[in-house]
Amino acid sequence: MVKNITIFTTNTCAYCAMVKKYLDTKQHKYDVVNLDEQPERQAEALAISGALTVPITVVTKHDDTQNVVIGYNLAQLAPALA
Amino acid sequence: MAATDIPTHDVIMIGAGPAALAAAVYTTREDIDTLLFERGVIGGLAAITDMVDNYPGFPEGIEGLTLAQQLQQQAERFGAVIELGEVSEIIDEGEYKRLKTTSGDMLARAILIATGSDYKKIGVPGEKEYYGRGVHYCATCDGAFYRDKKIVVVGGGNSAIQEAIFLTRFTNHIDLLVRSKIRASEVLRHELDELVEAGKITVHLNTTTDEIVGEDNAVVKVLATKDGQKTEFPTDGVFVFVGLIPNTQFLAESDIELDEVGFVRTDKHLQTTMPGVFAAGDVRSGATMQIASAVGEGATAALMIREYLEGKLEPQSEHATEASVAQL
User: Fold this and answer.
1) Is B138 near chain A, with CB under 8 Å?
2) Which CATH code of 1.10.540.10, 3.50.50.60, 3.20.20.300, 3.10.180.10 fits the domain covering B135-240?
3) ipTM of this predicted complex?
4) Between chain A and chain B, how many beta carbons pairs sit less than 8 Å apart?
5) In angstroms, rounded to a whole number, what is the distance separating the alpha carbons of residues B261 and B102?
6) A5 to each of A37, A39, A61, B163, how far by Cα in Å?
7) Least CB-CB distance to B141: which of A15, A25, A46?
8) Is the separation of the CB atoms in B245 and B120 below 8 Å?
9) Taking the complete model, does pTM exceed 0.90, yes or no?
């Protein structure tokens, strides 16, 4: 079961909008970290994902295990939400 | 209706970029049941373009993402349904075409292929290894990671210049590596000249990118050949915009004819070699790779699909008559 979801985004990222749309269609709630508004959290995004890109979606389960999905990747995002 | 439990639609559009969204506006306004399948971003490459200045009707330009969202809203207002997923195969079963999709098999009386194109890779060492960690193809997605950094942009066409201009809002300096010469519009050239004058961008013509080099899991430099001489560009990241490649891999084994580069061949009715299957936008052989023309092709394809569904359009043929177009 999913405990919480955090998406790292920017204002101009179209793929971020797609991740949000997908989560909306699956009726998942999520928190957004907008790196344009909070550039100080870029290092956190990099540390979590190892990538210099958005979206980064962090899915935390109730047992506190985490799945990190880089980019708009339904093949990884869908099972991460299961 | 097909005598089956398989989901069946009048039209399935593969892709949800400007061509398909425009086509969907036309088909749905005529109550033609329309489903769009999108595996990537709704709006396609337009959605990840910073600013669109050459789409008619927006005198101050419009952000690509905003244009894409408005196209989507317009199509959905008339009843278009967009499903997120991927089509892997099209099979001609006569009156209906069968699509193999991530949501299972589906049937449609007509299909529009509007899968567009993606940015081409350069194909040099280091490019694949550092993808997403220093090598990028989407400025609007990844530019924010290069605040106050020095980067390299590869390419000399409209996309490369447009995105390099966008990236200057973050970066200290950009080295623009252009294989031959700048091939961008006058407006973009003018903006580029101003940024060169301001010291934000340095243009390197006749410069071939040879290798992207990293250290400690980060890109540190680009090796290149400029005017025949080996040279290096120290950098924190590389953005690549060197042309487009059609999204037609899923058609490789089909009966739908592609041109030598992989774009879909159509007749003057935008119909492919498989009857009832049409193509529009950047994926079509001969496309001009403009949002405005993709939208125009989408509208035309929708009208041709309507003709096809009404039994008024013949399979692809050199003998297709001018009259059938005039009757639209």
Assistant:
1) yes
2) 3.50.50.60
3) 0.81
4) 78
5) 27
6) 19, 20, 9, 31
7) A15
8) yes
9) no
